[in-house]
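Task card 7
Instruction: Convert sequence to structure tokens.
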Amino acid sequence: MERYAKRCKADLRIVETTPSRSEFPFPDLPDKPGRPHKFEYALKQYCVGKLMDEGYTNVLMLDDTCIISPTAPDLFSVVEPGRCGYTHTSRDHAEDSFRVIQAEAAKNGWEEVVYDPALYANTGVMLYDAVYSPAFLAKNIIEAAPLLFARYPHQTLSYYLLRKYDVSMQRIDKRFNNSTLFMNEPGTDWRDSELTDSFIYHVTGFWKEDREEVVNVVLNKLAEKFVSETGAMPSV
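Output:
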């Protein structure tokens, strides 16, 4: 990621600490219903806002299990100014999230948002523009905290905030956030399979206990592919 940031003329910021509860007074939420680590999901939005407060005009947020190909294009140059770059994901996920949004909006008296499954994102890779910084204010994230009880917590929270603040969205090539990692033939082991043609490989929770091994396999296969095609050492 460091070399990709340099190619994009961007600063790499790795979030390794959490803000104090006085700085970000997010409520204590139980693990159930939904998934555990709800505070961490909220931090993904909060950190975007903090970086915008520091003066960044664009923020590319990546999950920590994203692996960038050495030949990935500059995503900052792909997404138009004033827009949010995203990759689309399942309509079923969108419908599930919107049911939660509707229920919580009715329960809490929130402003309703329009349902458009075409704007529902897999939030493992998102490029945000600071023109929409109000969507990432701590108070707005805290107000929407009940959405993190959804089956897809961060995607649900993100959809609500991005639609509430009428963020202009630009759908980008799925290769910038591809969770289909391997070109498996039926009955073959993924370790022996070739990688898909992707710019950013997203190792999701689908892999569970194999996640660390999958990350290492993808990294090794990417390095081998880059060397065989260029004869140079990779810049991953």
